[in-house]
C-alpha cells in the first residue's frame, strides 16, 4: 500500500513538470482557440480539461497503462474532453472537423503504443475520453447487454455476473482493459475456444461517424458494422456502445496453474501443448502458457468441475501430472479475479478498480504459429527467457475451437483457420531505470523466432499494437493505402485490409479519424 501510494505521488509530481516542459508549440493557435470556443457551445465547460487546468495532468494520466508515454517530450493533446452524453461526443467531432483539430478516442487507455492519448509526430489534437460513459445494461431474459465503451472488461464481467451468475462474456484477462479499444481490435480471452472472440459476439453498436451522426447497425450498413468489429480503434469513428450476446457458464468452473522447470520436462510439455491445446482438448478447456525464467507456467480455465476435468487431463495431457490438489473450483466471476493474480477469496470487487499500476515500463510484440515448433527448437528458445535484466516473457494463447472455425473474412480478425496459437512477447524493466528506451532483447528474440512463425505476412494482433511493424505515411492529404499495407496486412490479412480501406473510403474519405496505424481510405474506382 505504502509503496503504491508513494509511486502514485512520484508520478503525479513527475507529470506536472513534464507537462509544463513539453507543451508543444501549436501549429495553428487560431484554430485551436476556435475549436475550444466551438466546444464550449456543445459541451459543459467542466467536461473540457485544457492544458492550463490544474487537473490536466491527472486527467490525462488517469487510465494510462504504460509509463513510457508519460515521459517528457511526449506529444500531448490540446485538451481532454470527458463526455457524459452522446451529444458531447457529436459536438467534439463537429467542432474538430470545422476547425481542423483531430480527435484521439480513449476508452481504457491500454493501447500498447499510447495512441489514444499521444501522437508520435507534432500535431494539434484533442482526446475524447469515454471513461464517463460506462454503463452496462444487462437484459437477462434475452442474454444480451449494451455495454458502453468506457466500461472496463472487469466492470462488464462484474455487472453481467451480478445480474445472472450463469451468464458471462468472452474477453480479455486484464480487468482494466477498456471495452472500446478491446472490442475494436478483436478480444482474445480464456473462453474464445468455446465462444469465439469478443467481436464474434457483438450484435449491434452505436457509433458517432466523421459527420457527427449517431448511427446504429442498421443505419451504418453492413461494411461499416463489419469494420468496427476488429478493424482496430480510431479509424471508423467513436463507438459509444456495443450490444453483445452473453454466453452461458456453469455455476462452478475450475482453474489451475501448473509450473514446469526444464528439469521437470517443460520443453516436452510445451511441444505437446502446441497441437493439443488448440485441437485435441474440449472447447470448454483453455490452457495458456507463460514462458519465463526458463520455466513454463500452464494456466487453465475449465468450464466445468474438477471431477470432470481430471480424467480429461489424465488421458490427454498426462505430462502435466495434474492432480485434484491442483484444482481450484469457484464461480466464473471469481475465476476472472484468480487468473489475474488474485486468490479464490479475493473480493470480486477488485474487478471494479480502474487504477492501473505504473511500476514497470513494457514493450510487447506478437506472432502467430501455424506449424508446431519442434522440441529441439524449444530447447533453443527457452534460454531467451532466462530472467536476466531486460529479458522478459512470452504468453502463448491457444486458438482452435470456435475462434478457429469462423471464416477469416467474417470479421477483420483473420487469424483463424489453421492457427495453433498467438505468441505475445513482453519486455519489462523498472521505471527506476534512467531511461524508458526499449531493451534490445525484444527485437532480438523476435528476430530469432522468425523461422517458427507465420510469414508473408508475418501476422500480428492489432490489439497488441506495435509501431515497429510500420506507420502510416500521408500522401495527398490522406494516409496512403500502399504504405498502410506494410503493417495492415499483418494485422488483418490482404483481403480484410483491402475491405477495411474501401470501407474507410466510404465512411471517412477525408481521413479525419487518423493515427499512426489507422486504416487509410481507399476510394473504389469501380
Ligand atoms: C495489461 C493488459 C492486458 C491485456 N490483455 C489482453 C487480453 O487478454 N486479450 C486481448 O485481446 N487484449 C489484451 N490486451 C490488449 C487490449 O485489448 C488493447 O490494448 C485494447 O486496445 C485496449 O483497449 P482500451 O480501450 O483500454 O485502449 P485505448 O488506449 O483507450 O484504445 C485503444 C485504441 O482504440 C481506439 N479506441 C478506444 N476507444 C474507442 C472507441 N470507443 N471507438 C473507437 N476507437 C476507440 C483508441 O483511439 C486506440 O487507437 C491487454 C492490454 C493490457 C495493457
Ligand atoms: C443525453 O442527453 C439527451 C438529451 O438531453 C437525453 O435524452 C439522454 O438520455 C442523455 N444520455 C445520457 C447517456 O445521459
Ligand atoms: C504487455 O503485456 C503485458 C501482459 O499482458 C501487460 O501487462 C503490459 O501492460 C503490456 N504492455 C503494454 C505496452 O501495454
Ligand atoms: C487499485 O489498484 C491499484 C493498482 O494496482 C492499487 O494500487 C490500489 O491499491 C487498488 N485499490 C483498491 C481499493 O484496491
At a glance:
This protein is an alpha+beta fold and 526 residues long.
Any overview of this molecule?
By secondary structure, this protein is α+β, with helices and mostly antiparallel strands. The protein has three domains: 7-132, Uridine Diphospho-n-acetylenolpyruvylglucosamine Reductase, domain 2 (2-Layer Sandwich); 136-248, Uridine Diphospho-n-acetylenolpyruvylglucosamine Reductase, domain 3 (2-Layer Sandwich); 254-317 and 359-469, Vanillyl-alcohol Oxidase, Chain A, domain 3 (3-Layer(aba) Sandwich), CATH 3.40.462.20. The protein is built from 17 helices and 20 strands. The chain has a seven-stranded antiparallel β-sheet. A five-stranded antiparallel β-sheet has the order 5-6-10-8-9. A hairpin with a 4-residue loop joins strand 5 (136-139) and strand 6. Helix 2 (29-42) packs antiparallel against helix 4 (86-99) and helix 16 packs across helix 17. The longest helix has 21 residues, at 2-22. The chain is globular and about 70 Å long. Mean pLDDT is 93; it is low at 1-27. The structure holds flavin-adenine dinucleotide and 2-acetamido-2-deoxy-beta-D-glucopyranose (3 copies). The site of flavin-adenine dinucleotide (FAD) has 34 residues, from strand 3, helix 6 and strand 10.
